[in-house]
């Protein structure tokens, strides 16, 4: 096997490993929004943000949301 082909295969393997690691972290939730919204609704039931938010910090709001 030539040197260039070996370098290409190593680089392609690295890119594949990074893509495989990022899929469950980023791409799966991005493509399954409704499933994750339901999961967050269940997980956050009974939690009031004012009770867990440190004093003096504002509650985050969407800066891109039109008023």
UniProtKB/TrEMBL annotation:
Signal peptide bounds: none
Membrane-spanning segments: none
InterPro entries registered for this protein in UniProt: MITRAC7/Phoenixin
One of the GO BP terms on file: mitochondrial respiratory chain complex IV assembly
GO cellular component terms attached to this protein's record: mitochondrial inner membrane
PANTHER family documented for this protein: SMALL INTEGRAL MEMBRANE PROTEIN 20
Name this polypeptide is given: Small integral membrane protein 20
Organism of this sequence: Denticeps clupeoides (denticle herring)
